[in-house]
Request: fold
Amino acid sequence: LLKKTGYLKRGHLKVVSRADLVSGYVGQTAQKTKAAIRDALGGVLLIDEAYSLNGGPNDYGREAIDTLVDEMPKHGDNLVVVMAGYEAPMRRLIESNPGLSSRIKRTIQFEDYSTDQLVEIAKTYAGKFGYTYDETVEQALKERLSGIDRPNARTALSLIDEAIARQSYRLIEGQAETDDLNHILVVDIKTKL
Reply:
């Protein structure tokens, strides 16, 4: 979209995390961060869980932040930087460097998923691995999700991963029929590992 509107030349997406930007030696973090920026020129640099760069005064993540602050204005017309993460840690990251807050033009806060949306995400995820379940399992998922403070998509995926593992134990223990091989049951959702 940014390429089609003429804002960016290439319009590609470069996704990075702390491991892609931070090194364990002085000076290497700046090199890694500049290399990621170079790869993203003409497109979008997405820093996932960007708050992990804010590790404290003696952390090499600070060097990545300082490098970003220095490099962003140099490539303003040829680079979009998106920093993604949870609200409170992201606020602390932005406040950690005055230059960073002045370079961030927009903040977009996404609403949390509803329980029904999380159940749909879980169902799609289970389906990718060939697993199915019925409405009783959906209800059990809703109950588990409502008992968790601020569940997110990762929570929903973890519940399915747990259910698949529990289903496997059930099969190994001989508590399943042949048609259960790809079917998640309520017991798989309700039983914690």
